[in-house]
Please model this.
Amino acid sequence: MTPRQRNRLALVALIVISVGVAMALALVALRENINLFYSPTQIAAGEAPRNHTFRVGGIVAAGSVQRAEGLKVNFDVTDGAHTVTVAYEGILPDLFREGQGIVAQGRFDADGGIVADQVLAKHDENYMPPEVADALKTAESIGVVNPHAPGK
Amino acid sequence: MLPELGHFALILALCVAIVQGTLPLIGARRGVGNWMALARPAAWAQFLLLCVAFGFLTHAFVDNDFSVAYVAQNSNSALPLIYRISAVWGGHEGSLLLWGVLLGGWAAAVGVFSRRLPLDMVARVIGIMGLVSIGFLLFTLLTSNPFERLSPAPMDGRDLNPLLQDPGLVLHPPMLYMGYVGFSVAFAFALAALISGRLDAAWARWSRPWTVVAWVFMTLGIALGSWWAYYELGWGGWWFWDPVENASLMPWLVGTALLHSLAVSEKRSAFKSWTVLLAIFTFALVLLGTFLVRSGVITSVHAFASDPGRGIFILVLLGTVVGASLSVYAWRAPTVQSTGRFALLSRETSLLGNNILLVVAAASVLLGTLYPLVLDAFGLGKISVGAPYFNTIFIPLMVPLVFMLGLGPLLRWKRDDLSRVGRSVWIALALCVLSGLLLPWVLFHALDPRAVLGVGLALWVLLTLAIDIHRRTRQRGLWPGMLKLSPSFWGMAISHLGVAVTVIGITLSSHYSIERDIRMTPGEAVVLGEYRFVFEGVQDRSGPNYDASTAFLKVHRDGKEIATLRTEKRLYRVQRMPMTEAGIDAGLFRDLYVAVGEPLDGGAWAMRVYYKPFIRWIWGGALMMSLGGLLVVADRRYRLGARSGTTEELLAVTTRS
Model:
C-alpha cells in the first residue's frame, strides 16, 4: 500500500466509523423518544403503553377543569365516545379552555391515571390538532354522537 | 383596479422569467451573444415588475382594501400601520410573493455585480435563476394568488395573527427568506460551472461571496426567530425542535458545510464535486423547507393553510429541481478533476471532518423531522419525535465539530505533522480542561459534566485562535502584525469566536437556569438565587386592538430594588385570542424573565419566574458569526479583477493572500 492509499483508507475508515456511530445514536435516540398518539377510545380499550410516554388528544370536556392547590389541575379529554382524566401541574397554554382541542403528553401513574408533563394547545382558535380531528372523526364514524363537535 | 394591476405585473414578471430562463441558456450553449446579453436586462425587468406587484399588495394593506381576500384574512383597520405593512408577508400568499421578489432581487444583484464575469457564465447563472423563478411564480399565480378579490367585500378584516404583531416578526421572515433564496445563487453558480465545464478556482471565488452573504442573512433570520420565540411565546425557551425551525436549520447546516468546502475549492482546488453537491443539497433543503412549511403537512405557527394542491405543486417543483440538477451532476461530474492532494493531518482533512459532521447533523435532523410524516403517510400510526431525540444526537455531533473548529485553522494546507502543531496547543488543551472545571464552579458553585465540556470547548476555540493570531503576527510584532491580517482572516476569527459565544450561552443557560412556575397572590414574594421577586398586582388597560391585564413584579437584590417587570395577558379583540407578553430584565450575564399565566381563584395568578444566565450570548454569538461573514465578503480579493483571468493567475493570487 502506498502512503496515499493508506491515507485514503484512513479517511474512508474515519468517515464510515463516524457516520456509523451517528446512525446508531440516531436509531437509539429515535426509539426512545417516539411518542405515539392515542385517542381516548384507544386508551379505554387499553391500547396505550403502561410504562412509556405517549400522547393523548381530544376536546377538553365542558365543566371538567378542576384546580387543586398550587398549580395542580385535572381535566377530562374526550373524543365523544370515551373520556379520560388528565392530571397536570404547571401553567396551561394561553389557548387552553373547555371545548378546545388539545394534546397532552404524559404517562400512566401507579393508579392508572394519566399524568401529563406537557399540554399543547396551538395558537389559532380554528386550529384543531390533526390527530384530534381524526380521533373525533373515528369516534363519530363508529356511531357515537359527539356533543362537543366544534362549529357544527 | 389597483390590485388587478398588481396581478397583471405578476403575470408580466412570469413572462419575463420565461424569457430569462430560456434564451440566455440557449444562447450560452450556442454561443449567441445577443441572447446571452438578454440575461441582465431580463433579470432587472423581472425584479422591477415583482416590486411593482409587491408595492400594490402593500398599498392594499395600508389602504385597508378588504375586497382583496388576502388582506381581509390578514389585516384589520385597527391594526397599527407598521403591522399592516408586515402583514403583507404574514400569510401564505404574501410570503410567497416576498419569496419571488427576493429571488428576483438576487438575480438582479448578480446582474449588477458580475461585470467581471465572462458573459456566458452570467447568462447561465441568471438563466438558471430564471428557471427557479418560473416555478415559484407559477406556484404563486396558480395556487396562491395574493390579489384575489372577495365579493362582497367584508366591512373589516379578520386581523393579523396576534403572535405576528411584534417587531421581531417584522424582520424575521424577510431575513430568513433572503438567506433561503440567496442559496439559489450558489446553486445557480454550481450548475452553471458544471454545464460550462469550468469548475475551477475562479468559479469557487465568484460564488463564495454570494454564498457567504446568503448564509449571513440566514444566520440572522434564524437568530431573530429564536429570540422572538424566547420573549414572545411566553415560556422562555429559545429553540423547540419544531419541524419548522428544523426546516430552517437543515439548509443552514449544509450551507455552513458549503461555505467551508468552497474555501477548499478556492484555495486548494480540491473537494470540487463535493462542493457542487453541497450547493445542490442546500438549495434542495431550502425547497424542502418551503414544502414542509407551506404545504400544511406540518401544523404549527408557521403553517398557514393546508391545501393539498399547494403541497403537491411544491413537491413536484422540488422533485424537478433536485432531479434535474442531480442529472446535470451525474452527466458532468465525471469530468471534474480535483487536483489538490492532501495528507491525513492537514487543514483539508479538518475541513472534510467539518463537512461530514455538519451533513450528518443535518441528516439526523431530517430523519427526526420526516419520520413522523412518513409513518403517517403510510398509515403506520401517528407519532411525534420529541426534543430529547434531537438533543441526544445533535450535541454529540457538535462536540467534535467545535473541537475541530479550534484545531483546523492551526493546521497547514496539504500536510502537517503533530510535532509542528506544537506544545502550545497541548498547553491550551490543558488550560481548557482546567478552566472548564473552574469557571462553572466559580460562577454558579455547581458542577455539571456537560457544562464543563461546553465551557472547555468554548475556551478551546478562544485559545487556539489566540495561538493562531500569535503565530501569524510573530514576525511583525503583535499590533502591527494584527493590522496586516486580512479581513477574511478576521472574518473567520470572529465567526469562530461567535460559535464559542453561542456555545457558552447554550451551555450555561441550559444548565444553570432557575425556573419556577408558581401561584402568586399580590404582595407575595419568591426568591430565586440572589433575586427576590415581589408580585405588586394587576392592572387592566386597553391597547389599540387588544385588552390586557398587566401584572407588575418588583425585583430586589441585596435589599435594593433593581427592576420592575411588567408582563401582560392580552386578549386580541378581533380573533378573540389570548397572548402572553413576557416581562424581561435583560443583561449581559443574566436575564430575569417573568410571564403571567392564567388567573386562579382568590385573586391569585399563575406565574412563571425565571433566572436565565448568559442567555443573550446565544444570539450575540449568532450576530458575531454574521459579522464575521460580512468581513469575509469585504476581503479585497473578491473585489479585485477576476476579469476573464485564467485559473492559474487566480490561484497565484489566492495562494499568496
In short: Confidence is low (pLDDT under 50) at residues 300-305, 641-657 of chain B.
